[in-house]
């Protein structure tokens, strides 16, 4: 592991030992808004309800008597499986949301995420092409937005979901200013 001039370990995406663990590390990392947990739970439940409707029609036909002779074991596994998957996803959502973090350094903007597979995306300010702020209907209900940093390489694009609309606007302005300043230096 290499170190910065100030003695802090250098973060390297190709060395998993240097990737920060989920959760606050040193006060510089900021997390997502806690309301984003509810946004994710609502989105997960809606998605699984649609999936349950798609795979649950045999159970509905059995319940209304159209498939009266069908075995319960033939119609129950899929809807029960969907319910279990939904429950697992909902239970994991708070931890997944807490695994997100972002940090503004002098030269880079960093986004980290992941529980089992940790990912650190480092976007140099000079490589940013533009910054998107978006907010879908569920995010808007909770006063939240998502911000996406675009670069020339799709691999270094970074998305930060679930931050307040005010923080998204502040980040967009600040990152745009820093990106323009870095381009002038080049």
Structural overview:
The chain is α+β, with helices and mostly antiparallel strands. The protein has 2 domains: 36-95; 102-185, PH-domain like (Roll). It has 6 helices and 6 strands. It has helices spanning 35-55, 57-63, 72-75, 77-99, 137-141, 165-185; strands at residues 101-104, 108-113, 119-124, 128-134, 144-151, 158-164. The chain has a 3-stranded antiparallel β-sheet.
SSE blueprint and pairings:
Layout: H1 35-55, H2 57-63, H3 72-75, H4 77-99, E1 101-104, E2 108-113, E3 119-124, E4 128-134, H5 137-141, E5 144-151, E6 158-164, H6 165-185
Antiparallel strand pairs: 1-2, 2-3, 4-5, 5-6
CATH architecture of the largest domain: Roll
User: What is the count of helical runs?
Assistant: 6
The structural class is alpha+beta
> What number of structural domains do the residues give?
2
Keywords: Membrane, Transmembrane, Transmembrane helix
Pfam family, one: bPH_2
InterPro entries: YdbS-like_PH
Protein name: Transmembrane protein
């Amino acid at each position: 592991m290499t170190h910065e001039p100030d003695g802090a370990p250098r973060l390297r995406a190709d060395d998993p030992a240097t990737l920060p663990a989920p959760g606050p590390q040193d006060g510089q990392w900021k997390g997502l808004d806690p309301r984003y947990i509810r946004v994710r739970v609502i989105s997960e439940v809606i998605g699984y309800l649609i999936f349950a409707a798609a795979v649950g029609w045999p159970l509905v036909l059995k319940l209304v008597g159209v498939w009266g002779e069908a075995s319960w074991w033939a119609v129950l596994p899929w809807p029960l499986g969907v319910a279990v998957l939904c429950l697992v996803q909902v239970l994991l959502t708070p931890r997944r949301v807490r695994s997100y973090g972002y940090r503004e350094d002098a030269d880079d903007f960093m986004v980290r995420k992941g529980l089992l597979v940790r990912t650190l995306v480092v976007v140099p300010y000079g490589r940013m092409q533009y910054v998107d702020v978006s907010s879908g209907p569920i995010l808007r209900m909770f006063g939240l937005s998502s911000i996406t940093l675009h670069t020339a390489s799709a691999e270094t694009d970074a998305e930060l979901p679930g931050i307040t609309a005010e923080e998204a606007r502040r980040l967009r302005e600040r990152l745009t200013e820093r990106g323009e300043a870095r381009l002038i230096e080049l």
